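RESIDUES AND SHAPES:
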Amino acid sequence: MASFHVIAGASETLEHTRIRKIGVSDLFDALKRGVDDFMVKPSHIVFLCLIYPLVGVVLAVWTSGNNALPLLFPLVSGFALIGPFAALGLYEISRRREAGLDASWSHAFEIRNSPALPAIAAVGIMLLAIFIAWLLTAQIFYQQVFGSAPPESLSSFISEIFATGRGWTLIIVGHAIGFVFAAVVLCTTVVAFPLLLDRDVGAYEAIHTSVRVVLANPIVMAVWGLIVAVALIIGSLPVFAGLAVVLPILGHATWHVYRKVLESPASTRPAD
């Protein structure tokens, strides 16, 4: 049973992890390794990777009413904000495969035995708060542009969005606002969860290390964010089904980005 420590690690001290500078070629190598992990252990999609397509469909159905139509895009796009937390099991599979351990799909649940579980939960709650803040911001901005009255129908809503000046204002400014939220998530969690799974350093150090990684590799991390965004857009077609492939590859690749960008002292995780 893990002792309850959140801010600092098991030693109750803040430990600073050393950062490497990497290049864009390292990102593509990480993606290649992510594809390899997925091809070797593709059964993970059965219980993990179909979550995104199923949730996406549920969100689309749930917001099919006129009152909720304006929240459809913020819900679907904002769900990616909690993607780093949703991919925990995939990081664990890559960690185990790298260590030469059994990496069958059931071991994705081994995260429940992580000594850093309280810190992982704390960072996950932070992402949930950012997700909720994004939804509230999107709703307020929509009401400022279109008013509080719900759309008359789906067709009129689409027409208002794409065929009017205020619709394009909503699209352009809304995407700019969404970019800010996405940038915050990237900067604070780009390696946070893989780091916590590998070493019990505490929530503060995990978030701080992610920020330091971005500051040390700003262009490379911006490219990584762009790769993730484009991959998620492609994976959302058709009807989110492509995420069943995109999500695991990105999850596995994120583990390898973590390995490349941080110096690797001995893991604090047991050998299992």
